[in-house]
Structure formats: C-alpha cells, structure tokens
UniProtKB/TrEMBL annotation:
Keywords: Cell membrane, Ion transport, Membrane, Sodium, Sodium transport, Transmembrane, Transmembrane helix, Transport. It is a multi-pass membrane protein. It is found in: Cell membrane. Residues 708-822 form the Cyclic nucleotide-binding domain. GO terms for cellular component: plasma membrane. The keyword Transmembrane helix applies. GO terms for molecular function: potassium:proton antiporter activity; sodium:proton antiporter activity. The chain crosses the membrane at residues 30-50, 57-80, 100-122, 170-191, 203-223, 244-268, 288-308, 320-341, 361-380, 392-412. This is Sodium/proton antiporter, CPA1 family.
Length: 843
C-alpha cells in the first residue's frame, strides 16, 4: 500500500480523535462510545464507497482505510502496554489496598466464573467444542480499562466506586488474557475438552513468569534512571522502554503473560520511582505518559472499531441467539459474584462492605472494548484454528462488545443517576458550600490588595466591594446554616478541611524539598487516610486514622523479628530511618495547622468547632512528639544528623528562592542564574542522601554499652552478661503494670519507655534503667511502665542487682540521681556503708 495513503489515513484518524472528545461532551456520551461509533461509521463508509460505482475516485482512500495493516500484535505489543503501564503508574496503590479484597475478587474470581459460565453455556447451546467455548468465555471476560475508567471519570462517580472499577478493569485484563493464552493453546493443539484442572494448572505459571519479568525490568529501569538525576529527558525516555521490554521478555523469553509483566512493571515503578526520581521529573514523566495513553487508548478503540464490520460480515441469523447466550451468561456470572460472593465475604469479615448501589453500578459498568476485539482478532488470524471456530469466535466477541458499548455504555450515566450515585450527600453538599465561602474570603483579601496596588477609582472599588461582599455574606450564611447539618457534621466538615489543608501543605513542602522525595508518598497517603477517615467516621474516624499514621505496622514487627531472631538488621534499619524522617516531617506539618484553624475554620464553623479541632490537633502533636522522643532516646546521634540535614535542605530552598527572585528582577543574567542553579542542584543532591542508621547490637556489646557498668572489669562484665536475661517488647506494650510486686530491675539496651507516674510522665532511653526504686524500697510498683518504641531490655533479678549495686560506684550514683528526680531520699536506698571495694560484679 502507498505509504502516502497510509500516512494520510493515520493523520486523519488523529483528526477524528481530536474531534471525538468535544463531540462526546456535547452529546453527553462516553468518549469511548463516540470513538467506537465513529470507527464503525468510517469502516462502513469505506466499504460502501468501495462497492459502489458512484464514487470510484474515493476507492484508493477506501482501500487504504480497509487495508490498514491492523493485526492483533499491533494492539497487544504496541498499544495495550502503553495503556496498562500508564494506568498502573497513575493508580494510588495504597488507597486501593483498602478495597483489595473486592478488587481481587472481581479481577480474578469473576474472570474465572465468567469464563466457565460463558464457556459451558455456549457448549450446551452450540456445536463448538468445549475448548473453543471456554476461549470465547476468556475473551469476553476482559473489561476494558480505557472504556470503563474514562466513563466513570467523566460522570464524577464516587471515588471509591471509580477506584474499585479501575483496579478491577486493570487487573482482570491480565487474568483474562492469561486464561485466553491457555485456552488458545488448547484450541490450536486440537484438545476438544480440556479439564478445568489442566487450564488452571498453567495459569500460575503464566502469572509467576509475568510477575518476575515485570519486576526485574522495572527495578533495572529505576536503577538506571536514578543514575541520570540531572537529565530529565533521558529518564523519561528510558521509562518509555519499560512496558515494551517487560512484555517482550515475558512473552518471548519466559513464555509467560506479557500483560501481567506490564502491570507488574507499572506497579513496581509506581512504588519505587517517586523515591528515586526528583518530583519534577516524576511529574513531567506522568504528563508524557498521560498523553501517550490518551493517544494509545483512542487509537486502540478506533482501530478496533474499524474491524467490527469485517468481523461481522459473515454473521448468520443463528449467531444472534448465541450472542444473546453470551450476554446473559456473562451478566449472570458477574451478578453472582457481586450479589452472592461479595456479601458472603463481607459477612465473614473478609471484605469491606460494598454497598448495593455500588454493586449495581459495577455490574452495569462491566464494558468490553478494544482488548476483547484484539483477542478475537488474534483468533481469526491464526492458521491453526479451524475456520468455523474463527468465524464464530469473531462474531460472538464482536457482538458482545458492541452490546456493552452501545447499550451499557450509552445508558451507564443514566444508571448512575438512577442509583443516586451522581448526587452529593448532605455532608458533601455542605462541604462544597464551605469551600465556596473559604475561597471567596481569600479572593476578597487578594482583590483588596490588588486594588490598592493599582490605585483604582475609589467609587468603582467601593461599588464592586459592596457587590462582592453581598455574595460573600450569602455564601457564609449558607455554609453556617446548611439544612440538616448537625453539630457533629460541622466538626466532620472542619476535620475534612483541616486534613485537606494538611495535604496541600505537604505538597508545598515536597515542591520546596523540605520533605524528601522518599517520604512524599507516605505522608500524602497519611493525609488521604485522614480525609477518608473524617469523611467516613467523623471525629472518631479522624482519630483512628491519626493513630494509624504513628502505629508500627506488621511489616515493622516482622523486621524486628528478623533482627532479633536471625540478626538481619538491614530491613529494620531502613524502616526505622523512614519512621524517623516521617515523624520529623509530620511534626513540621502539624505545627503549621493551627493558623489554618484560626484563619479559616473559626470564621465559618465558629469558636466551639475551632476549639475542638485545636484540641484534636494538640493530641496529634503530643503523640507525634512522644513517638519521636522514643526514637531520639533510642538513637540520639541519628536524630541530630536528620535535623542537621533538614536545616541544610531548608537553607538550600531559601537560597534557590533568592536566586529566582534576582533573576526575575533582572539583577542577574541567564548564564549566572544557570551556574548558580547548577551549584544548588549539586549541593541538594548531596543533601538528599540520608545518613545511615546503625542498629546492629551484638550480644557481647549489650552490656558494655552501658555507662552504668563502666567501672566493672572484663571478668565482672562477662558474669553480668550471663546473669542478665533479655526481653523484647513492642511499642505500646506494658512492661511493668501498676501495683505489681518488685522483683527485677530493667536496663534499656535499645528503645525507649515511659514511666506513667502520678505527677508527670518520665521517658527513658538507651543506657538507662528502671524498677530499681521499687526493688530497693521493697514496695509494690507505684507507676506503670509502657514501651514507646520497640525495645530490647536486659532484666536482672533482685539478689544479683544488690550485689551489682555494691560493686559499682557508677550504678550507685545513677540510683541516687534517679531517686532525687523522683523525690526519694537516696540514703533510704543506699546505705552509707556500701562501698565498692572490689568490682567483682554479681555471681
């Protein structure tokens, strides 16, 4: 075919793609549906022009359209990886973990159920072999991510609904295409009735190989991109290769699922990339991928739509009945999972509740699109598939796709409206009014400053100010007097606004490099959880989310166990350093929120709500300080290094700001500005390197690290080490209950504890002891001791402690100091005649 004609046709398709989006907005139809309709009309028009003699002059154009070299590999190897990779890069993975069970059920279980249901329904109603029927089931199980996600975004569906649909439509493509590969091989090998065990037996191999390939390629790419920190275009260019390399390595190298490899590569880069690349580079890369995905999604739809007339040209009357069977079986299988399995999992407390309207929307939102047509095209292209099987598979897949796009896609917006999912809840409606009131107050202040700067006419300023003031008063009145908004809802609105401002502050700090790239994703996730917690549970939900931001995760406990049991310290050191930096970042953010409460929330919700928010904020600050104090006591030198690093990075940010201001004022030229910026970038790169945290404590060093035992000789230290018992406690554990009998003294080898005394809490860290006063006074313990960090304690019984006390002057001095701090007379604890004549230590 003439290359000029092909180029002209492709350029024309881009024009159609450009026109389709505003047309979809005007007609209030999903973008993907418009693309599909336009593609079918173009193909049908080209066929008509080619077959009629009235327009022979257009025959070359019609032949060019119908003769485009559209093969299944164009979809699977060129366009689909782009679409899947961009979707995984943009996903908020940690938020999706909140709904991981329904997403996994819909993405895997629903695909298997639909494949089996459609396969056996066709087997009972058609002459196709079971393998071919199951192949059709696998093809029509793929909900198209571009079709579904674009529709839900265009109608502003609830975030959770869009999140579940997006996760399902993305991951079930991988599962369905893997099953397609299994059944396709059975059809080509001539296996008429494969067992389900045979099919599912190959499924894990395809998944495991795809995961391995995608992870390896993405990690290698992130490592390579991190080497070129000052070359943004090089990094973005390298990212373009990742999905294609992952797909080819999996498909051709490991004989595994390329789709799963691409999804895994995207997930891996999503999790590791933001911590290794500069924020501006990551933002620019996402912009490039968004544009590539937009083009790929549109092309994959319109090219697939061009195939529809070709795939349906041999349709027979009996085929329509089979298309009806596929539609009924696929919808029924999806309904069984949504209205049968998911509620059962919820009752068993294995899955969060998915409300009935959400499930109904998910059922009707299971659109099929270009992926289904591409798989059907792959079947029709194979020379090893029987001719009749190719014909029926192409017709059934195409017919079902047309039904979902035209019928479901065009009515989905109305279904969402009928279910009431497109309307704001009373709380969201009140929140929108609050946003308007706050925004208008800010606008009034900015406009006032602007009019002063430009010295405008006073009459005009006064007139416009009066007009704007009336609008502002109305907005504030509506925000304050929202119908059916109770006091607790006002508190919820205030908490949502506070958490939203916290998120905005974090973003500003990330842009200013005050918060490191490594921590950006984590602190933003915490802010999102605060917003969702406040929205779902009000004050209690906000407090639960705030506690989770400080809690030690199960992963942290696993790393602690690795360090204690096996001596593997690397994972624990990394996660402890992350926690250190997270707490420092959180403390910086929290201390800036009080001004927002006073400046914005008090003006809208009143003094009582503002005072309550101040109280909740104070509790968060106290909890963060307590957690940070625990780490400071545990690793005092490391805390100092992190604070020095923060000061250096803040100074660099301020220095860079000064250079930008001088450049804008014309005080320095472009050459000088570039040189200064390069110097700042080099120093910032060095400042980004976080100091290494060493937490490795050998058994022989546990005793020697204590200043309390510094005057004991080696033999005494050895005997003491044998006498001491090691105890491990997690943060929040009660080490010594109130009122418990005295019997042991505790020495803190690592970690920190808090003595909850009646007058004021006392925090102790590494190298300090507790429990000695109760032992020496022989009274029950009057204070409760709680660990505020994962801690390693050395425990000494009462008899050995008395012997050690008699042998160590340093220990005697420490006991006297602790007694004076607690208001106890030291002479009541250590008799004057006790003198360390020989440092023999406990026996």
């Amino acid at each position: 075919m003439d290359i000029i004609l092909i180029t002209t046709v492709i350029a024309s398709l881009f024009l159609v793609i450009g026109v389709a989006e505003p047309l979809a907005t005007r007609l209030r139809l999903p973008y993907s549906v418009i693309l599909a309709i336009l593609g079918v009309l173009i193909a049908a028009g080209a066929t008509f022009f080619l077959r009629t003699s009235l327009t022979d002059a257009l025959n070359p154009v019609a032949m060019a359209i119908l003769g485009l070299p559209i093969r299944s590999n164009v979809f699977l190897y060129v366009l689909l990886p782009t679409l899947l990779f961009q979707a995984t890069l943009e996903m908020n993975l940690r938020r999706m973990l909140d709904d991981w069970m329904p997403i996994l059920v819909l993405a895997v279980v629903a695909v298997i159920v639909a494949t089996v249901t459609v396969g056996y329904a066709l087997s009972l109603t058609s002459a196709l072999p079971l393998a071919a029927c199951l192949l059709v089931g696998a093809i029509v199980s793929t909900t198209d991510p571009s079709a579904v996600v674009s529709i839900f975004r265009s109608i502003s569906a609830p975030q959770r609904l869009a999140r579940i649909i997006e996760g399902e439509s993305l991951l079930n493509d991988a599962a369905a295409i893997a099953l397609f590969g299994v059944f396709m091989s059975f059809v080509m090998l001539g296996v008429p009735e494969p067992t389900l065990a045979e099919a599912l037996g190959r499924f894990p191999v395809l998944i495991a190989g795809g995961v391995a390939a995608g992870y390896a390629v993405a990690r290698a790419a992130v490592w390579g991109m991190s080497l070129f920190g000052n070359h943004e275009r090089a990094q973005i260019t390298m990212s373009i290769a990742v999905p294609y390399l992952a797909y080819v390595v999996a498909e051709q190298g490991l004989q595994a699922s390329g789709v799963i490899a691409v999804v895994t590569a995207g997930l891996t880069m999503n999790l590791t990339g933001p911590g290794r690349l500069r924020p501006q580079t990551w933002t620019s890369m996402m912009e490039v991928w968004n544009l590539l995905s937009h083009w790929a999604g549109a092309l994959i739809f319109i090219l697939a739509a061009l195939l529809i007339p070709r795939l349906l040209e041999e349709v027979r009357i009996g085929d329509f009945a089979l298309i009806g069977v596929v539609i009924v079986a696929a919808v029924a299988a999806r309904a069984v999972v949504l209205f049968g399995l998911l509620p059962l999992l919820t009752r068993l407390r294995l899955s969060p509740v998915v409300e009935r309207p959400y499930r109904a929307a998910i059922l009707w939102g299971g659109l099929r699109g270009a992926v289904t047509l591409a798989l059907a095209l792959a079947v029709t292209e194979s020379i090893r598939v029987p001719v009749e099987v190719k014909r029926v598979v192409g017709i059934l897949a195409t017919g079902f796709t047309v039904f979902t796009l035209i019928v479901q896609g065009s009515t989905l917006r109305h279904v969402i409206g009928w279910l009431g999912l497109d309307r704001l809840s009373p709380l969201d409606d009140a929140l929108s009014r609050q946003v308007v009131a706050v925004a208008l107050q800010t606008v009034r202040e900015d406009v006032a400053r602007t009019t002063e700067n430009y010295d405008l006419s006073r009459d005009i300023v006064r007139s416009e100010a009066k007009r704007f003031g009336e609008r502002l008063d109305t907005a504030v009145d509506e925000a304050e007097a929202s119908v059916n908004i109770l006091d607790r809802d006002r508190i919820t609105l205030g908490l949502i606004a506070l958490a939203g401002h916290e998120r905005d502050t974090i973003l500003n700090r990330v842009r200013e490099r005050t918060i490191s790239v490594r921590m950006a994703d984590r602190v933003l996730l915490d802010a999102d959880q605060l917003i969702e917690g406040a929205r779902a549970g009000g004050r209690s939900g906000y407090q639960r989310a705030a506690r989770r931001t400080l809690a030690y995760s199960r992963g942290f406990q696993l790393r602690v166990a690795l360090q204690r049991r096996l001596g593997i310290t690397g994972p624990l050191a990394r996660v402890t350093a992350d926690r250190f930096e997270l707490l420092l970042s959180q403390r910086l953010i929290l201390r800036d929120l009080g001004a927002f409460i006073e400046g914005r929330i008090r003006r809208i919700h009143g003094r009582r709500v503002a005072d309550l928010l101040h109280e909740l904020l104070s509790r968060r600050i106290e909890a963060a300080d307590a957690a940070l104090d625990g780490l400071r006591l545990q690793y005092p030198g490391y805390a100092e290094e992190l604070e020095r690093r923060f000061i250096r990075r803040t100074a660099l940010r301020l220095e860079e700001r000064e250079y930008i201001a001088m450049r804008e004022d014309g005080l320095i030229g472009a050459e000088v500005y570039a040189a200064l910026q390069n110097d700042v970038a080099a120093r910032r790169s060095r400042a980004e390197d976080r100091p290494r945290l060493d937490i490795d404590l050998q058994r022989s060093d546990l005793v020697r690290q204590f200043p309390l035992f510094k005057d004991l000789d080696d033999a005494a230290l050895t005997r003491l080490g044998q006498a001491l018992q090691t105890a491990y406690v997690n943060a929040g554990d009660i080490v010594v209950p109130h009122g418990s009998p005295a019997g042991s003294v505790y020495f803190i080898a690592s970690g920190a504890v808090e003595i909850e005394a009646a007058n004021a809490p006392l925090r102790l860290g590494r190298g300090e002891m507790f429990g000695q006063l109760a032992v020496l006074t022989r009274r029950p313990r009057r204070a409760q001791v709680r660990a505020i960090a994962p801690s390693t304690l050395l425990v000494l019984d009462e008899a050995r402690f008395h012997k050690l006390l008699a042998a160590s002057t340093a220990l005697q001095n420490a006991v006297r100091a602790s007694a004076e701090k607690r208001g106890v007379d030291p002479t009541d604890l250590i008799p004057a005649q006790v003198s360390p004549v020989t440092a023999t230590g406990p026996r």
